[in-house]
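User: Before I run my own analysis I want an independent prediction to cross-check against. Here's the chain; please return only the structure tokens and, at the end, one sentence I can use as a sanity check.
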Amino acid sequence: MFMAALLDAGLSRKALDAELAALPLEFKLKVSRAERGGFAAKHVDVVIPGRRARGASKSKAQARSHAHPHDHVHDEHHLSDGGHGRTWKQIERLLGKAKLTPVVRDRALGIFEGLAKAEAAVHGRSLETVHFHEVGMVDAIVDVTAAAAGLELLGAGRVTSTPVGIGHGFVDTAHGRLSIPTPATLELLKGVPTLPVDVAWETVTPTGAAILRAVVDEFVSWPGLTVEQVGVGAGRDRPGPIPNVVRVMLGARDGAMSRDRITVIETNLDDLVPEHFDHLLERLMGAGAVDVAIQHVQMKKNRPGFLLRVLCPPPAREAVAHALFAESTAIGLRHQEWDRLVLERRSRRVDTPWGRLRVKEVRGPDGARSWSAEYDDCKKAAQKSGAPLRDVVRETEALACAAFSGEGRGEGEGEGA
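Assistant: Structure tokens:
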């Protein structure tokens, strides 16, 4: 559905086919017109030789979408190589070897890595042993890669989405009958604002939730942009008060800096054990915070204390507040919304002597780009290899500059500033 919406919004079918041709899989895309609840829309099937077309493409993401979700057929189909499903490592190798554009490969890997981590969490397994059933099939790999490629081919610099609508009921999967949303979907939606939708079908699948989590910079009711193109992607015709479509709006903003709103939550603390701050920070980030800062202050009665300031998207305010009350000694919070100017940024992966490590790429107002290595990745690499952390950081940033400095403009990431 997301692929169909992007094609309807102006994505070149020829350019998309050329990018997907890098996948070592047997398939073809069947694009047609459809109508859902009064919406004229595009519809895409991923057709695999020897398998009957199954209706709508499964992946659903919302690049600026008032998304009325889709359905996901949860059954096991044979892969072109004769197997059932694939492991995360097999998918990682497949995408890693495919001659995709680097940014497309990195985004697709990020989506599947999110899926793998969610499956590992809900099934109590290690990441290396995760085995996909539904999402490991050929059409899901195509869906995810098409989502990654489509945004890059359209030059999307920033992706926003409405809060995610959640239906109700049950769905049959390879793990039996599960309640909606399924455990993996719910794991992926942690920190993502949701709202109830009165339909008795699966409105968000694990694949759709993983795409959303990987590509959406911010969940807002409406961003600041001038709408230029609108695309509608159709799922199967489903009963209910909403049409089963994904709607995508493409628009422009002025300059290299984007404008948005950020919620600022503050509290003064004088009785929290300092060594607990790392746990508090992890909980706040998990609840949707984009940045957390602590400042030493002198409080009443000459008590030394801390000013804790949390930045989060406005829809995440309640979740962040709950985490702050639960994990700190705060009994009151102050909050307000600030206007914010944000430079374009995105997360990339670069090959290093210590494996593929993440770097943050930032584009300045003059268009110049800079790269900073992700501390957590470099720390793990240094601990595993015994190399000095500073050497890992410097080498990773140098390799990123060499690998990406000749590329054109990419997508934004949407972290806190």
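Sanity check: The chain has three domains: 2-252, 259-332, 343-404.
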